[in-house]
Amino acid sequence: MDPNNNPLPREIAPGILWLGICHEQHHKGKIYHSYNAAFLLIGKEGAMLVETGHQGDYPVISRQIREILDERGSALKYLFLSHQETPHSGGLGRLLEDYPEMTVHCDVSDYHLSYPEHAHRLRRMEVGDTVDLGDRQFIAVEPVIRDLRTSLWGFDTGARALFPGDGFAYSHYHWDGHCGQIAEEATSLDLADVLGVFAERALFWTRFADMNIYSDRLEELIEELDVAVVAPAHGLPILDLAVTMPKVREGLIAGNL
Questions:
Q1: Paired strand residues for 13
Q2: According to the model, what pLDDT value does residue 100 have?
Q3: d(CA 179, CA 6)
Q4: Rounded distance, CA 253 to CA 16, Å?
Q5: CA 206 to CA 226: how far, in whole Å?
């Protein structure tokens, strides 16, 4: 996709900016689009970036970050990564260089091996740990659907937004104009189909597990946190959970053998 026609960044909730660019995926004769998204949280005491996007996205995402920070008069102080896979952490090294005051908060396993000169800036997070942005807190929460052992999810108290990494991974239809839309705007999107595509390609274990168990726990977590927004790394943000979550559940269990 031409970055000059990129519909992002987009503010999906007060102080939460959706960053990134679409990527083509070829699967069974179809071309799907998907995001390796990052999200910028603007707090009273500074900003936090959630995910970095793929390393190939960095020129676009870094420009989006700079422009937003300049416009909002904020500074990037924190970075949260859901896990070490490159679509989520591929820009880490360049961010550490570009923002020398920024600290990294997540399961930091092995990052010190790749960036030993920045080891003192790594802050281990476990479920329940928080980062204070002044008028909002970012809380590490249970990763119900993991991609790696080190997976961790996050929750922003300001907009009641859940950041589930790969937990809501699905693609969208470029030919129907879904790029940059929230899930509820993409009315022609077949969630069961596109969730199945991602499960087969990226979360293959879900085909051999009872996903009703995971779906039940996911719904419990959403109720416990009173989630209003879901901001996935590889899907369109969800702003109306009552409308979209039943479709997500259908998609999660569709691939069970």
A1: 16
A2: 97
A3: 8
A4: 30
A5: 26
Rg of the chain over Cα atoms, rounded to whole angstroms, equals 17
Q: Residue 54, exposed/middle/buried by CB under 10 A (0-12, 13-18, 19+)?
A: buried
Q: Where are the beta strands (DSSP E) in the chain?
A: 10-13, 16-19, 22-27, 30-35, 38-43, 46-50, 76-80, 103-106, 122-124, 130-132, 137-141, 153-156, 161-163, 229-230
Q: CA-CA distance, 160 to 59, in Å (whole number)? A: 29
> Is the pLDDT at 249 greater than 80, yes or no?
yes
Residue 110 CA to residue 34 CA, distance in Å, equals 28
Segments forming the whole domain that contains residue 157? 3-254
Is the whole-model pTM more than 0.85? yes
Structure confidence by residue, pLDDT tens digits, 58-69? 999 999 999 999
Taking alpha carbons only, the member of 207, 206, 196, 205 closest to residue 235 is 196
Among 133, 139, 149, which residue's Cα sits nearest to residue 227?
139
- Give the total number of structural domains in the chain: 1
Q: Looking at residue 174, what DSSP letter applies?
A: G
2: pLDDT strictly greater than 60: no
Nearest C-alpha neighbor of 89 from the set 116, 110, 117, 68: 110
Does residue 7 have a cis peptide bond before it, meaning omega lies within 30 degrees of 0?
A: no
CATH number of the domain that residue 80 is part of: 3.60.15.10
